[in-house]
Amino acid sequence: MRAWEDGMRNMRRMGQTTMVLATAMVCACASGGGGSRRPVTRAGERTVRVVIENQNWLDMSVYVQSSNGSRFRVGSVVTGRTEVFEIPTSRIGSGPFRLLGNPVGGNELTVTDPLVVIPGASAYWRIGNRPSTSFAVVR
Description:
- This protein is α+β, with helices and mostly antiparallel strands and about 140 residues long.
- It has two domains: about 1-30; about 45-139, Sandwich (Immunoglobulin-like), CATH 2.60.40.2890.
- Helix content is about 25%, strand content about 35%.
- The chain has helices at about 1-30, 90; strands spanning about 45-55, 60-65, 70-75, 80-90, 100-105, 110, 120-125, 135-139.
- Strands 4-1-7-8 form a four-stranded mixed sheet.
């Protein structure tokens, strides 16, 4: 009888631990607000605003590729969400740049045509379910 009671006590303790961990995970995920990371810019530094609407079935990791070929990660955009990123012009360079969307859990890279955006202007990129349905405009 003693072994049975010890087993039940251990199972109850495991259940409580599981509930605490599950609650912590839900809270951590809920506080993400879309999962994007906006680069910190220095005071007075010029930026280019990039608005990305993700209509793809997968979350997207977004990168900027400058005209010299260097690439850096801007952030991520969750399925069905729109995120706004302020990108320092020092990271883009003086020539045209491309936006690249790499699906999380997928392998079909989506790439814009070269974009030329002056400081203070915005680029808007809608990522569709297929690369052929995606488009980017400069405003």
